[in-house]
Amino acid sequence: MGEQPIFSARAHVFQIDPATKRNWLPASKHAVTVSFFYDANRTVYRIISVGGTKAFINSTITPNMTFTKTSQKFGQWADSRANTVYGLGFATEQQLQQFSDQFKEVKEAARLAREKSQEKFELINPALNIAAPQISQELSEDRHSPPLLTVNGPEDKLFRSKSADMEQLTSEKERIKKMLSEGSICEINLEAELFTLQHSNAKLVAALHEANTGVVEWKKQLAEYQEETERLRDQVAELEAQSGGPGPSGSETRDELTQSLEELEALLKAKDEIIHNLHSRKSDIHELEKEREEAVQRLHDLETRNAELERRVESAEQTLASTLEEREQGQSEVQRVVDVLEVKIYDLNDLRQSLAKLISK
Prior knowledge:
Layout: E1 3-16, E2 24-26, E3 32-39, E4 44-51, E5 54-60, E6 68-69, E7 74-79, E8 84-89, H1 93-124, H2 126-143, H3 147-152, H4 154-243, H5 248-360
Antiparallel strand pairs: 1-2, 1-3, 1-8, 3-4, 4-5, 6-7, 7-8
GO molecular function: G protein-coupled glutamate receptor binding
Subcellular location: Cytoplasm; Postsynaptic density
Protein name: WH1 domain-containing protein
């Protein structure tokens, strides 16, 4: 994923009641780990808290967010993207202060990352950022053109053409922004699913390893106990055969052996129950595997949707580039027509001056 944890704390997680917008609803029954993550691939910071297969918090930090300490051990912040308010209850005031300081640092880092991202976007796509100011500047210059252009009429057409191009360009930019926003939301959901899946998969692997290790160990012990039982029975039979009948000492030895056998049988029974319980846990593990497969399928569907959104964004960018090229060609043609008209107007003024001189003579 490319995400690295940079700070973690233990706290009780709450969310604001969406109905009243005043009461707090507990998201976790006990204190859970709340961590700050940094995604180097997307240069974003997030606060994540997961318990089992449930994500309590998945909040992307933006420069507009503010963490507010409402009491000595409680703080909160609003996430407009998730349309909720998160609250954290800490065990000590020092933990709350540490979390608040970390929130401020990450918020500042998110602001710097956004500024760098915007600068990089402007360098990669200069036409999207300078096209509108250029159009405004050209329109402003055209408004100060000589009055004779207005008399001949091409300026009105020039204004209408540039205005239509500007509206089309703005529409294309808004459409691409919307598609990029949808892709970003889809990617966040995808990462949340993947994070939950990895957490569940780790628990599943640990449980499988523990169950397999326990089964092998208990089987080994069971075989040893069975061998010991057979050995003791053989000894009992041998002693009875040697004594020719149970004497006083033989009777005591037999009682001791019988007691040992009973203890071993009880122990074997207990081990059998443990092995039975381990087999029952295996059935639970199979259910976890089924849930993991379903999560993998959802992850695949999200990846497919994200790829489709990326394809649509790429198509829209190509369409926008083509539109910009056509607009530039149209502007060149309009400029050529304006230059020709200016030459004709200049010739017309000379002709008028010549006619005026002839008339005056």
